[in-house]
């Protein structure tokens, strides 16, 4: 195995995160660009931490999202940066956001369960959009009559909202409190057993 | 639940949050009057009966846990009537909720028997639970919408690749065994026309033939000595010589000697071409 | 026109160059993200120069190309970064292996001669792949009508199979006897562990 000095290693990790087409994990770094070097986990973690610090005062930041590390622009700059695009960012309806929130907090969940909580039917269009965006996927079938499909959120969903895990969801605490207070309701307990997502 | 009570209602007017516990303290529902134009817009924005109920409760600053069912039911029915009058697409869910409200109201009107245990419960309990749960989802959706996200708040850098980057193509690995087996396979199939066996000597002669062909050129004469490597010893010289003879025989190269004992030169190609 | 402090301005310019989909010129910056600010040309030039200096020791560089500024990966890192786009070529077909074997054992050989043994035409693709891999090269032309090309194996071929000369190629007959005699032959195992490429 070749050796590489720390300065070069840092440059390589930095450039790799920048040019990779998706967020890249430490393991993926080790399997690809760092493949031929002997890099201890501790060294790699130190480098990533250093890079995160280096970029703190800059216009872009190194963040960890669900599927790995990526650089992204500083949130505060969005009012001006959005001028680089002619089109406005897509807006999502309340129905879509409520459905997505329910899937995120109560996964795995069936369409029937979503409708029960929201008190209205969930349009097929919403499920289609969520699936097409790669935010939601079918993860199985509930073993009840009709074997309805069970939905869960994906890493792509977390990446899109710049979250590294489901527990980082903004209202995660409120949902947990509700679950704790309603021990009697078995459907709520599912939240705690949410799969960590593939 | 304290957490619930402190959650600000999103459609609330910007007034100080003051809970009025009990119907006696409630102002008359004057704000129920909405200009008809606005009403259509407002009704259209409800995400269903729970959303509408929640709106009514929050608007009146009722405490969700002490749900004043009579007032809420009355107001709810007024909205449903308005929806019907405006011929808005009225989902069955709204009518179902109206039935639920009416049922709760009638059960509350029945005289309470003293021997009834508390476990029997408040008929409003289930509705209150659903309202709280829905409110949680509604707030979660709003929080999710406020969460910085790609395309709107966060942008991913586009860093160009230096020109020297080319995708690495990993060639398949081949083992020597595969080559040998492929050769013997091909030879077996060709056995009908081919009979000779491969010998080590022949092989090295063939290799030397390739080597000589790669050295000599068409345009220049190469001295014969350059084709021999003395370090290889006698056998090496013999192999080179055999290779040369074979190449001459196949007319791949030709040798030329200016006179007796003069240097022999080798050139690629045939005599006919000159 | 609004004012903006230099630190914020620098962050904004930096982020804009990063997130823009194409190289962006100073004028484009002024027309888009800097639209509502009063930014002197001198100030903008100074910021761009500063950014270029800031990134000099890093894994990516701020460079000026024909249509504007862009960040690009450090040239020296290319050999490793390339691994992010690694693609595995499909395994070689039997036709390919037989052609290679015939060239190895019968060199120098013409395509016609290979076809004669194999009984089928040899596709140009096969010859191209073997040549591109550096295993086979054209060493001359046979002096027969049509002057067909003569192929031979190269030194790269010998190196790949750890052979010092073609005479080390196992004779096909001997090899077969050997494999028949010992199914679990250790020497076979060695053969299977061909070097994983230079």
UniProtKB/TrEMBL annotation, chains A, C:
Single GO BP term: chromosome separation
Gene3D superfamilies: Winged helix-like DNA-binding domain superfamily/Winged helix DNA-binding domain
SUPFAM superfamilies, alphabetized: Winged helix' DNA-binding domain
Keywords for the protein's UniProt record, in alphabetical order: Cell cycle, Cell division, Chromosome partition, Cytoplasm
PANTHER family associated with the record: SEGREGATION AND CONDENSATION PROTEIN B (PTHR34298)
Protein name: SMC-Scp complex subunit ScpB
């Amino acid at each position: 195995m070749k050796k590489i000095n720390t300065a070069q290693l840092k440059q390589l990790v930095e450039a790799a995160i920048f040019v990779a087409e998706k967020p890249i994990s430490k393991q993926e770094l080790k399997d690809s660009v760092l493949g031929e070097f002997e890099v201890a986990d501790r060294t790699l973690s130190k480098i990533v931490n250093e890079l995160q610090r280096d970029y703190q005062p800059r216009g872009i930041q190194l963040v960890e999202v669900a599927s790995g590390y990526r650089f992204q622009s500083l949130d505060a700059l969005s009012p001006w940066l959005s001028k680089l695009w002619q089109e406005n960012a897509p807006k999502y309806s309340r129905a879509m956001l409520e459905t997505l929130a329910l899937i995120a907090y109560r996964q795995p969940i069936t369409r029937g369960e979503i409708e029960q909580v929201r008190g209205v039917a969930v349009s097929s269009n919403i499920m289609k959009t969520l699936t097409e965006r790669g935010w939601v996927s079918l993860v199985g079938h509930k073993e009840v009559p009709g074997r309805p499909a069970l939905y869960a959120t994906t890493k792509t969903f977390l990446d899109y909202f710049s979250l590294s895990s489901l527990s980082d969801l903004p209202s995660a605490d409120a949902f947990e409190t509700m679950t704790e207070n309603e021990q009697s309701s078995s459907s709520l307990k599912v939240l705690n057993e949410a799969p960590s997502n593939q | 639940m304290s957490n619930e009570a402190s959650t600000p209602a999103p459609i609330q007017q910007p007034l100080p949050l003051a809970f009025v516990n009990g119907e006696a303290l409630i102002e008359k529902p004057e704000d129920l009057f909405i200009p008809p134009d606005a009403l259509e817009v407002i009704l259209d924005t409800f995400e269903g009966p729970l959303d509408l109920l929640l709106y009514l409760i929050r608007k009146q600053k009722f405490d969700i846990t002490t749900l004043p069912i009579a007032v809420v039911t009355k107001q709810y029915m007024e909205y449903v009537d308005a929806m019907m009058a405006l011929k808005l697409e009225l989902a069955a869910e709204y009518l179902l909720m109206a039935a639920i409200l009416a049922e709760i109201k009638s059960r509350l009107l029945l005289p309470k028997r003293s021997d009834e245990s508390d476990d029997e419960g408040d008929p409003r309990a289930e509705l209150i639970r659903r309202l709280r749960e829905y409110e949680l989802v509604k707030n979660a959706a709003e929080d999710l919408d406020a969460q910085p996200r790609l395309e709107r708040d966060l942008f991913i850098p586009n860093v160009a690749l230096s020109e020297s980057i080319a995708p690495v193509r990993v060639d398949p690995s081949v083992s020597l065994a595969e080559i040998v087996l492929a050769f013997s396979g091909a030879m077996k199939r060709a056995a009908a026309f081919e009979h000779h066996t491969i010998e080590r000597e022949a092989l090295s002669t063939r290799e030397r033939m390739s080597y000589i062909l790669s050295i000599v050129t068409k345009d220049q004469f190469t001295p014969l000595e350059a084709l021999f490597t003395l370090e290889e010893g006698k056998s090496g010289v013999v192999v080179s010589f055999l290779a040369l003879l074979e190449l001459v025989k196949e007319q791949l190269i030709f040798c030329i000697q200016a006179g007796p004992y003069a240097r022999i030169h080798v050139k690629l190609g045939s005599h006919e071409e000159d």
